[in-house]
Amino acid sequence: MIKVIDNKIYRRQDKELLVIEPWGPDSLRVRATQNHTFNKDEETSALLPALASAPEITTDGKSAVITNGKIRCELMVTGKLKFFNQKGELLLEEYDRNRFRENVEGEFNSALEISPRTFTPIMGTENFKLAVRFEPNDGEKIYGMGQYQQPYMDMKGCVVELAHRNSQASVPFALSNEGYGLLWNNPAIGSVTFGKNLTEWTALSTRQMDYWITAGDTPAEIEEAYADATGKVPMMPDYGCGFWQCKLRYQTQEELLEVAREYKRRGLPISVIVADYFHWPHQGDWKFDKDYWPDLKAMVDELEGMGIKLMVSIWPTVEEGSENFKEMEELGYLSRNDYGKRMHQLGNAAIMDPTNPDARKYVWSKIKKNYYDDGVRIFWLDEAEPEFTNYEYGNHRFYLGSDLEIGNIFPREYARMAYEGMEGEGQANIVNLLRCAWAGSQKYGALVWSGDIDSSFRSLRSQLAAGLNMGLAGIPWWTTDIGGFHGGNIYDEDFKEVLVRWFEFGAFCPVFRLHGFREPFKEPLGTTGGGTAISGAENEVWSYGEEVYEICKKYLELRERMLPYVKRLMAQAHEKGTPVMRPLFYDFPEDGKCWEIEDEYMFGPEILVAPILYEKQRERKLYLPAGEWRSLNDGKVYAGGADIVCEAPIDAIPVFVKNGCLEELKF
């Protein structure tokens, strides 16, 4: 039976309740459950409250059609859904292989008995294993979905895990070249298969199906609609647009300050420097170990005098030896296990539960007292997946439910903890660095970096795909560890090449940040507290010899000249949700060749970047879209709409600027 109530279409058929409703211009939200009613999802949904819409709805009681701007959904007698754009072109349809009681013209009459929506009960609970199936579109390309360590930007043909890991962030928004975007609005652990014969989304434990779909004439239209539906980043503060210096790990206050002073002595641009992990006495103390960091306020004040912000690493882990462990355990502020003893991460450490609003307030109170009140205004919220032992998702439980059901919201709520605390102190333009994200994380000031990746050209190739897809998944603030995290020896000539090429690429990333666990390692300074952790080798731009230093200096100075342009890009991200770095097709959607290219990208609308992604490569082929393009390296102007071959000496990657734009950008 179909009913129309408050501009929503409801269909009850035996066990299933389905609702289709407008959710912003040109967009629809679709939910289904086999429970009696839909669950309240204010804490787990990625969607903001719906903007007002005036859809057109028609129904004969058995089938229905809802049109909301550029999108139309047909609900058929069988319960199957089809989505069309304003031109009547089919965008997406559910996959249905059933014998129908009523013969519907044009539909399959199949003995396979495969339904579009399958709810498999998890006995003894209100939850189900859910599978939702769609017909594949021949020639379709699918982008977004977050950050995965693979070199493929087009997700068509891929099986994608909907779960977080160190260096993997599931942000389940898919942008299709067919002219639609789909958000899988479900934080459950699961997967999606973008197959040749079937598209199938699954959730291992959930109470309902929930997805949001929008139609648009261009990728930009789709992206902006998605940002309106899930939230936009704040305005990036000016210091966020400059150069960030980081390593694992500065062992003392004086060591960090001396690095900052050396940058200033050399006249090098720097805007942020980082105090990394294990600066604390115990995990979960959320304060500096005064044996090695005696005066935080004096350190912040000296850095501020040099025009440098201090970013401080925060972990969600709480050791049994921490001054806060017992109280947090008693108050129920720690995540727990369904089976056996609470699993520990990095020794005897539990993990705080950011899905609990009281736990968020408690941890923020410690951060405020021990960091914020001494002037720290930017935090590195590490371990944001979180990095549970072996990622045994079925064994963890949070305040809002099991990890299988709601675990993917952990990084969003972790970002929310700091964001709401800082906002409550009156801070504007908030940015914090995280290792993971879910849909909606962007509205809590999340700058995502790509995790503990290895130091290799193979890894660099994967970061390019990851960064572009993160932007299309609605996370415009993204960065990497320049040079990778693991495996780089500062005396190795092969690694120096990796570092240089990564640094050149990093200058054209939304945030320009040098980090890594460099070799040879340094021994601990002590046997207690923050002195027990080892450190990596030096990781400043002068640490790799004169040739590397001069190249890094060249790109540091270029980024400094680009700052007005970068700030304009950040304003567009804040106002419209525009990715800062994006594939060529974002700016040239009518050029079919731009949909094929995955090793170039646009840094904003006026700069085209062709990074060097292979060892010993000293030239490369690239494509210039229509228009005239000025090479940043030799100043020559090239006609677009053609392939060219460019030289790429070790000190330069091919970069082109739209002719007549950004004349100040020259080497």
Notes on the protein architecture:
The chain is an alpha+beta fold. The strands form 9 sheets. The protein has an 8-stranded antiparallel beta sheet with strand order 1-2-3-4-18-15-14-12. The protein has an 8-stranded parallel beta sheet with strand order 30-29-28-25-21-20-19-32. Helix 5 crosses helix 7 and helix 9 packs parallel to helix 10. The chain is globular and about 75 Å long. It starts with a strand and ends in a 9-residue tail after the last strand.
Task: Give descriptors for this structure.
8-stranded antiparallel beta sheet, 21% helix, 11 helices, 8-stranded parallel beta sheet, 667 residues, alpha+beta
How far apart lie the N and C ends?
69 Å
Given the helix and strand composition, which structural class is it? alpha+beta
What share of the residues does DSSP label as strand, in percent?
Answer: 25-35%
| Number of helical stretches of at least 4 residues | 11
